[in-house]
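Extended Data, record DUF397 domain-containing protein
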Amino acid sequence: MKLSDELPATEPEWRISSRCSGGNCVQFSQVNGGVALRDSKNPNAGTLFYSAQEWHAFLAAAKAGAYDVTK
């Protein structure tokens, strides 16, 4: 998929987690049937795009503890 195909026709509605504090946050937006992510401190640094399937797989893995940090 070309980047131009991923970019929405209008400015995305960016959101952050209600648990975000101190400005160290990831912003997310639903775009073109998928999800876009960017850094809240530097939103012009670039945007990552994921298909709905990729996003759901990531969320399922996170909920299953795949990314938990162990001591």
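Summary. Residues 3-63 form one domain.
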